[in-house]
Fold this protein.
Amino acid sequence: MAIEDAMVLARCLHENGADEQALRRYETLRYKRTTKITRYSRIYGSIGQWNNVWARALRTSMLSLVPESIAQRLMQIVFDYDACNEPI
């Protein structure tokens, strides 16, 4: 995320100059992305921390039933973002 932040910030500064408008644009662009990632992480983190034996068994069973194509699609939120081509 830090590398993405740096790339988007650099592009915003290049497009708008080093002023408040560039920083506001950067903030707007990054807010959407970081909000999505935070929500995604909270869900996976809470499920991953289940301590109950039955809950862990349920989690393991559910994850084994998810087709690989769906799992890959879910991970696209994290890995398919291109900070170089994000519209500024």
Observations:
- The mean pLDDT is 92.
